[in-house]
Amino acid sequence: xxxxxxxxxxxxxxxxxxxxxxxxxxxxxxxxxxxxxxxxxxxxxxxxxxxxxxxxxxxxxxxxxxxxxxxxxxxxxxxxxxxxx
Length: 85
Known about the structure:
alpha+beta
């Protein structure tokens, strides 16, 4: 089985977004909740996963993470509104 990678966005309790990449979104989310994720999510508690996209390579996931991090809060909100069911 081929390993997959994901770019994800978390919503924090103070209405900010955190973007990252991983090979296991749920496991990484739990790490963030436990304060073992990123420095940003230790100070800005994540509430939920609001976006995730699958990639076949780590490089592709990292490139998408970089692209997402360059977006403004408003642009991220607009992107996410397209994925809300």
